[in-house]
Amino acid sequence: MKRRTLLAAAGLLAAPALAAEGWPARPVRIVVPFPPGGTVDILGRLTASWLQEATGQSFVVENRSGAGGNIGAVAVARAAADGYTLLMGSPGTQAINAHLYPNPGYDGIADFAPISLVAELPNLLAAHPSLGLRDIPALIARAKAERLAYGETSIGGSTHLSAELFRLQAGIEGEHITYRGSAPMLGDLLPGRIAWGVDNLPSILPHVRSGALVGLGVTSKARWSGAPDIPAIAESLPGYEVTAWFGLLAPRGTPEDVIAAANTALRRMLDSPTATRRLAELGATPIPGTPEAYRTHIAAEYAKWGEVIRKAGIRLE
């Protein structure tokens, strides 16, 4: 009762004011196009729980991973445009994959109706403690002296580009391993089967805090407020910057009143102290906005990463 009272005070239980007429009248499915346990999954489940509180209707997360997020994105792009199947999008699914896959099966801009951005956060490069490394310059020196195995968590995603841009700017080579999600990558990094890896901050930071891994650098332009003790990679490699973002989308053609209702619920949720505090605990920053602002953001990211991928010669192996 106390929790519901607090949520009501924060405006998260005002379902009648948030819902379009008749929506949501039944459970809503949020497709997370990556495996359980990663940042997209964490944020997808948080978003589902908050929208459930806001509307009084059930929001269920479905993990449909594979092909760098393409399988889940295709499923939503082809779903009925009725507001009952939504996608938790990311830079990979909406802006990057089109430049890496010959035929991802969907258009990250044209095939979706954006609802709102949810949060943004940096990725984190961490190394196994057995290497005895404490900063980025030490990793670069070690990687130039010997060929180290390294990994990231999503083919074509922001962690993939984070790792490859770091390698290119640092002028190093190595044994590159792409994993399908955080869990398998951490499954090799934590016991030291690979030397270093890149993951979204919420997924990997707990292992740094526990001492199981050493955090060497965040991928944002400057140090991140959620982990101010960890340097930015840009402090050693000027100009280096990658920031991950996540947001909710519906299939193209979803009624405008449904998009508006979902946007209102999300924005009210993201403006609440409860959501702000929980996201801060994950090292993420809420970035609520309009559907139009989200569409503009995706288009800008599409252009940015297309240029980076072309210039850097990044391609799927």
UniProtKB/TrEMBL annotation:
Signal peptide positions are 1-19
Asked if the record carries the keyword Signal, the reply is yes
Q: Which UniProt keywords apply?
A: Signal
UniProt family annotation: Belongs to the UPF0065 (bug) family.
Top-level taxon of the source organism: Bacteria
By its UniProt entry, which InterPro entries does this protein fall under?
Answer: BUG, Bug_dom1
Return the protein name. Tripartite tricarboxylate transporter substrate binding protein
Q: Which residues cross the membrane?
A: none
Q: Which organism is it from?
A: Belnapia mucosa
Q: Name one Pfam family in it.
A: TctC
Gene3D superfamilies per UniProt: Bordetella uptake gene, domain 1 (3.40.190.150), Periplasmic binding protein-like II (3.40.190.10)
